[in-house]
Amino acid sequence: MEAEGQEEFVGCAHYKRKSKFVTPCCNKIYTCRFCHDENETHPVNRKDVTELVCTKCDTRQKVQAECENCSLRFGKYTCLECKLFDDEEKNQYHCEGCGICRIGGRDRFFHCEKCNMCLPVKLKNKHKCVENVSHSNCPVCLEDIHTSRIPCHIPDCGHLLHRTCFEELLQAGHYACPSCQTSLLDMSQLWGFLDKEIEMTPMPPEYQDYKAEILCKDCHKESLVKFHIVGLKCPVCGSYNTCRIKGSPKPTAPADSNTHDSPGPSSTGQGTGSSSQGCEDSQ
pTM for this structure? Predict the structure, then answer.
């Protein structure tokens, strides 16, 4: 047995553990599924794993919590259903609904049956349900979300994306959800800036009576508004996250003024919406 206070057999860059597994797909030995997938051209399903190798005595054996030869415990956290062993404290727990182990503590999360995923308890009855939302790929990197170890971001529209992908979108100047084009966060400051830009940038006289039909990507309302090169503002919710519909802007007779009018604005492709806490990593 290892001496008290010593940390040996630390596993790999992904997990601290005292076992390796025999891959059912190619009969090779790896410390974890991520190590396998990084070195092979095919993924491994860890739930298909049936054999382990003890890192202390090299005994090959069936999947179990402790070595049958030297009694070494393979991980402080053990889930035999997921074939998961981890010596690091992450408040791990197994979610029957998700079918996988999560981190962060069971008391801090609940499983939403419709979304089919674990969410922070503060979002209970306060989030927009999207059926089986986590059982899809991130719309930015196209990698799986449900079993990803990367934390998720959950915008108000309910479509998931990796938190790192969300941050990269913002850094690149993209503020709309890649799935539905709704604004990913509160854009009121930018909308106020565009209001001032329009006020300070009058259109030439020949274009002052031009109007455009728009669709707001934030409130999903259609409106007829005054055309402006800076942006087309939704008169319903005040968003500039709009797009033109039904052709090009056209001059409108002064008498035709019973529809929604708003001073200016062109499509920015960015909107309102707010950020909510994302889901935790999956193991």
Answer: 0.66
